[in-house]
Specification:
This protein has ten helices and 14 strands. By secondary structure, the protein is an alpha/beta fold. The strands form four sheets. It has an eight-stranded mixed β-sheet, with helices on both faces. Strands 3-4 form a two-stranded antiparallel sheet. It has a two-stranded antiparallel sheet with strand order 6-7. The radius of gyration is 19 Å and the shape is globular.
């Protein structure tokens, strides 16, 4: 049965959001966008609506995106098999060209177009533009998978000053003209740190850090970076959550005020996180 809310209730919701709007107005918030929220077209539309709405109320949104499934799909079309080691895509010269084509091309421009269609002003760039992400080889076994050596924020701050939403694909470069495939979570952490962002939002496919991985109600709402290390040692943070938590810790050490790991599959989860008292997901803070 469809639920309706009255105009009075709508007004009440807006009034309750006011302190949060004031808090984030003019502040930089970095959103790492990927996972199922990127594959599901309805969710993708809702995320772009959230981004456009936050921009319209004065939040300086920076969207950092991945696109792993799209890269794998294109590789398959081109008859190339995707190989992973320790969760990272083995990237030879041909693969890095495919990564660049898919991320900086199709995925990036699709997101820019969607944000514009929702009333936002967006500009798509890659980590190669203005040498935004400088990198070197992370591990010879992985080929052109990059370890970030420097983030040059000027291309981002220039766009923010011109009132655009920067939409960033995570490809790095070096002084010799090589391109590198950069892990999206790592790139978002470094970018947010370099910008001194008010908040980094990591959209994932789980609710956040859970005491019991099988029980969504065991969500840990707040954790310091010291407590996060302890949870890792205890095995509560394990598997694919380990690199995400490590990225959160790195982002805070580099200057981000706090980081939120949350379920990007929940409709309008970004708005719930930023504009309500309850928030969404697990917030990782400094000591």
């Amino acid at each position: 049965m469809e639920q309706f809310i009255s105009n009075a209730q709508r007004a009440e919701v807006l009034v309750e959001a006011l302190p949060h709007i004031k808090r984030y107005n003019g502040k930089i918030v970095v959103v790492k966008y990927g996972g199922n929220a990127m594959i599901d077209e309805n969710l993708k539309m809702q995320v772009m609506e959230d981004v456009a709405l936050l921009w319209l109320i004065g939040v300086k949104i920076v969207l950092v995106h991945g696109g792993g499934p799209e890269i794998s799909e294109m590789m398959e079309k081109l008859g190339k098999k995707a190989v992973f080691e320790d969760g990272l895509r083995v990237t030879d010269k041909e693969t890095v060209d495919i990564v660049q084509m898919v991320l900086a091309g199709k995925v990036n421009k699709t997101l820019v177009n969607l944000i514009e269609s929702k009333g936002g002003r967006a500009m798509g760039i890659s980590g190669m533009d203005g040498r935004l992400i400088e990198a070197k080889i992370k591990d010879e076994r992985l080929g052109y998978v990059g370890k970030i050596t420097k983030v040059n924020t000027r291309p981002i701050t220039d766009l923010l000053e011109k009132n655009y939403i920067p939409v960033i694909s995570t490809i790095g470069c070096d002084r010799e003209g090589n391109s590198y495939n950069i892990n999206g979570d790592t790139a978002a952490a470094h970018i947010a740190g370099a910008l001194g962002a008010e908040r980094l939002i990591m959209m994932t496919d789980i609710a956040g850090i859970l005491k019991d991985r099988e029980d969504p109600s065991s969500l840990i709402h707040y954790v310091s970076i010291k407590e996060a290390q302890t949870l890792k040692e205890q095995g509560i943070v394990s598997g694919g959550m380990i690199p995400k938590v490590e990225c959160c810790i790195e982002a805070i050490r580099e200057g981000v005020k706090n980081v939120v790991i949350m379920d990007g599959r929940v409709p309008h989860s970004i708005l719930m996180e930023l504009l309500t008292d309850e928030g969404a997901g697990t917030m990782v803070t400094g000591e």
